From TrEMBL:
Residues 157-189 form the 4Fe-4S ferredoxin-type domain. It comes from the Bacteria. The keyword Membrane does not apply. PANTHER family: IRON-SULFUR CLUSTER-BINDING PROTEIN (PTHR42827:SF1), IRON-SULFUR CLUSTER-BINDING PROTEIN-RELATED (PTHR42827). GO terms for molecular function: iron-sulfur cluster binding; metal ion binding. This is Epoxyqueuosine reductase. It comes from Candidatus Abyssobacteria bacterium SURF_17. Keywords: Iron, Iron-sulfur, Metal-binding. Coiled coil: none annotated.
Length: 233
């Protein structure tokens, strides 16, 4: 396999944006392995993680007042479908030039009680430079906040990686104020997963949809455009 990694990065980015992506970045998986134990060893053959984000439609978020709405649920499903199509196209493009790729579906959550997928998209997204893990324990983009969903494609293609941002939530506490379960705290390490999960289960019954969604701290999170550092990371 012989590729110009810059050209390949740009080609893959172009494919993603032509299909509706809002964000594209590449994480160095070896750096994640050095920093954390969060990458499953079953992905050891891959050195890069492509993270693609698609923003949620403002109109679908506007109706969220005290819990998820059918409009938000439809938007959640629509965006996941767009992300999965993009991931498929990227994987096929990578395989055409002789490299390997594996797609991690946008909505995959293996462990609902700990709200974790087999591979956390937010981890790859953070190392791909999209943002930081906020007080709502979501990936927070400086401009789009948490109003973005992500998909991941792992590959052994030696793409030039992006770098994580040093930004943070700073003094923002919007998600802390809006959460009906009291789950987000000033210190993100104290996020109450059990309280959040119980609230999602309550919403799940009310919504009558096979998704555990809420939307309140997603809708409230508009990032931190000032570049403030400190506070949550
Ligand atoms: S998803 Fe809902 S319940 Fe969970 S932290 Fe966000 S606002 Fe709270
Ligand atoms: S709402 Fe504010 S405090 Fe909460 S995650 Fe977003 S930027 Fe951070």
């Amino acid at each position: 396999m012989k590729t110009d990694t810059c050209v390949t990065y740009d080609v893959l980015r172009q494919i993603a944006f032509s299909m509706g992506a809002s964000l594209f970045g590449v994480a160095d998986l070896d750096r994640i392995r050095e920093d954390t134990d969060l990458l499953n060893p079953c992905y050891d053959a891959y050195s890069r993680g492509i993270s693609v984000g698609v923003t949620l439609d403002e109109a679908a978020l506007a109706g969220i007042v005290d819990g998820p709405t059918p409009e938000y649920c439809r938007e959640y499903i629509r965006v996941n479908a767009v992300l999965d199509s993009i991931a498929r196209a990227l994987a096929e493009a990578i395989e055409r030039i002789g490299a390997s790729a594996v797609r991690i579906p946008a909505s995959e959550v293996v462990d609902w009680e700990r709200l974790r997928g087999h591979l956390p998209h937010k981890l790859i997204g953070r190392y791909a430079g999209h943002g930081w893990i906020g007080r709502n324990i979501l990936l927070v983009h400086p401009h789009f906040g948490a109003r973005v969903r992500y998909v991941t494609v792992l590959t052994d293609l030696p793409l030039e990686p992006d770098s994580p941002t040093e930004r943070s939530c700073g003094t923002c506490m919007r998600c802390v104020a809006v959460c009906p379960a009291g789950a987000p705290k000033e210190d993100p390490k104290r996020f109450d997963l059990r309280a959040c999960f119980n609230k999602l289960a309550e919403f799940n019954e009310r919504l009558d949809e096979p998704h555990f969604i809420c939307g309140l701290c997603v809708s409230a999170c508009r990032g931190n455009k000032t570049g403030e550092k400190g506070g949550a990371t």
